[in-house]
Amino acid sequence: MKASRFFISTLKEAPADAEVASHRLMMRAGMIKKLGTGIYTYMPMGLRVIRKVEAIVREEMNRAGAVELAMPVVQPAEIWQEAGRFQGYGPELLRIKDRHDRDFVIQPTSEEVVTDIARQEIRSYKQLPKNFYQIQTKFRDERRPRFGLMRGREFIMKDAYSFDRDLDGAKASYKIMSDAYRRAFDRFGLRYRAVAADSGAIGGDVSQEFQVIAATGEDAIVYCPDSDYAANMEKAEALAPAGPRPAAADALTKTPTPGKATCEDVAALLGVPLATTVKSLVLATEELDDAGNVRKVTVWLLLLRGDHDMNEIKVSKVPGLDQGFRFATVTEIEDHFGCKPGYLGPLNPRQPVKIVADREVAVMADWICGANEVDFHLTGVNWGRDLPEPDAVADLRNVVAGDASPDGRGLLAIERGIEVGHVFVLGTKYSKPMNATFLDEAGKPQFLEMGCYGIGITRLPAAAIEQNNDERGIIWPDAIAPFTVVVCPIGMDRSAEVKTAAEALYEQLLAAGVDVLLDDRGERPGAMFADWELIGVPHRVVISDRGLKEGQLEYQHRRDTAATKVPAAGIADFIAGRL
Ligand code: ATP
Ligand code: MG
Ligand code: MG
Ligand code: MG
User: Fold this and answer.
1) Principal localization (predicted)?
2) CA–CA separation, 491 vs 544, rounded Å?
3) 487 closest CA partner among 575, 357, 385, 372
4) Are 303 and 264 within 8 A, CB to CB?
């Protein structure tokens, strides 16, 4: 591809609503363009990344024996009513009407349609197992669409559905899929963990999420560095003993003693259910002297109601605390207490939390409150009792770093992740209500045992960027970069030698099957380099008159701090050795 023909549109500034690196950088690099809330055009540069993700997923699905089809995006409500999801799905399901006033939905996934296909097509056990997949547009009317492609309303998902004759078969299909996911995720070149997730009615070890590790991830994942144990927080909590953590339990019985209580304890003392006291947060009050200098800073740790967005926490106004308080950063808290505050994991350590003041609550004076770590708490904390919002998400943890791993092989650690894939044994959840059966050897009808398997195709590039970026821009792993190599000639319009060498190298790399772009726009070097560093092409070759005189070109990987001189004659081999 030549840059003059391609479409490149970079921005100096990201729009104000872009809160996380991937959203900012995808907007600045001209990869996506916003049309409406959670609705984006995949611009040419972004679409190249998406297509590469799709290609890897498609190869691994085919290799695992899944067969591709494409189901309708707009689906009649009737089959959704059969499975009970037309009502049951809730407000995330986009329901529309046609000119005859008939109900339709836009697929958020496609269990109903694929089950309908299976009940018509699969008659005999001899046709099993089968696995159908599609890579298709989905729509979910998310409560909080945000972070660009990370949580869009319209997005692309790979969804696969397996059909087996019994639960053992379904588990075998599930295993094949989760192995295929591992291969795909290895190929993406990302750091990820496959973690146990809640498998609902089926129970057992039959649901896993593929989480790309990133500090900005919305999910907390719990793992044991000394064993294979890894689970998402919900799953880990479901296994953990209920109630206050044992280390602090004795503080509950009497007046709290300094050095013993945690936030959960205080919640229990007040008789507030844990689910209503979702987050703790640190505030700092400042006392100023007459000259306006800070005389004293007091840090307050409060129990708050959160709505799962750790960067924006709703805090009820606590009378007496609303004068002159400011919000401490995690770093300040760490400095102050010499420990990490247990609930502040996902925050950017240098950034104060954005607080949305809510309503007044009664103050309860002078309690002891903890940092969810034994021996680190405050006395004299004043804080309020509050009611939950209906949609508040409980994220109060009963599992913290340093707890014993359930397999007894070590201590738990916690990190943040982005859910990019999810594999799941469904059982007969859809086949039963939709009466999808096959005939077994005895000619008896049996319900099909199903599994479903999703990958967020458009979420994946965003997750990749959260994991791989710096102050200059994106750093793509080779496998999903919009271009693998960019050739940057300096002064191509002035120098025939540079032009010839650049075009020759471009043709040579193309012939070798390298996904190369020649930047023939005639930009000045500074602007040209800034563009490619922002866009994040991993390999760059610079061709200049000065270099050519010495028979040299300059190669630089996006992660390198300096360029390497490479003899012009050997550049193609040099690059091949790096891909
Ligand atoms: P989340 O917990 O992030 O809301 P989910 O559990 O609802 O995701 P699934 O139903 O498991 O999502 O769908 C399979 C995959 O589709 C997810 O693992 C994720 O990668 C992707 N996905 C889900 N919702 C979105 C969205 N709003 N935007 C982009 N990708 C999404
Ligand atoms: Mg969801
Ligand atoms: Mg999820
Ligand atoms: Mg999921």
Assistant:
1) cytoplasm
2) 7
3) 575
4) no
> CB of 85 closer than 6 A to ligand 1?
no
- Sheet strands (E) in 273-399: 279-288, 294-304, 312-317, 325-327, 354-360, 363-370, 377-384
Q: Across the chain, what does the average pLDDT equal?
A: 80
Cβ–Cβ < 8 Å for 91, 158: no
Distance (Å) from CA 276 to ligand 1 centroid? 26
Question: What does the alpha-carbon distance between residue 542 and residue 560 come to, in Å, rounded to a whole number?
Answer: 14
DSSP string, 331-361: HHHHHHHSS--TT-TTS-TTSPPEEEEEEE-
DSSP for residue 181? H
Q: How many CB atoms lie within 10 A of CB 105?
A: 21
* CA distance linking residue 424 with residue 170, whole number of Å: 10
Residue appearing with tokens 């869009």: 152
The closest of 205, 138, 213, 150 to 178, measured between CA atoms, is 205
Q: How far is the CA of 42 from the centre of ligand 1 (A)?
A: 18
Cβ neighbour number for residue 512 with a 10 Å cutoff = 13
Q: Residues with beta carbon < 5 A to ion ligand 3?
A: 419
| CA pair distance 90, 143, nearest whole angstrom | 11
Which DSSP state fits 148?
G
Tell me: ipTM over 0.85. Answer: yes
Residue 229 is given by DSSP the state -
Rounded distance from Cα 108 to ligand 2 centre (Å): 10
Q: Which residues of 342-363 are buried (b: 16+ CB within 10 A; e: fewer)?
A: bbbbbbeeeebbebeeeeebee
Pocket of ligand 1 contains residue 420 by CB under 6 Å: yes
The rounded distance, in Å, linking the Cα atoms of 208 and 175 is 10
Tell whether ligand 1 has an atom less than 6 A from the beta carbon of residue 195.
Answer: no
pLDDT tens-digit readout, 147-195: 999 999 999 999 999 999 999 999 999 999 999 999 999 999 999 999 9
φ, ψ of residue 312 in degrees (nearest 5):
-145, 100
Rounded distance from Cα 211 to ligand 1 centre (Å): 11
**Residues near 421 by beta carbon (within 8 Å), at least 6 away in sequence:** 181, 185, 209, 210, 453, 454, 455, 456
Structure tokens at 487: 């050739």
Proximal ligand: closest to the CA of 232: 3
pTM: 0.78
Residue type, 407: D
pLDDT single digits (tens) 464-505: 999 999 999 999 999 999 999 999 999 998 999 999 999 999
CA angle 187, 191, 194 (to 5 degrees): 90
User: What pLDDT does residue 294 have?
Assistant: 52
Pocket lining: 142 vs ligand 1, CB cutoff 6 Å: yes
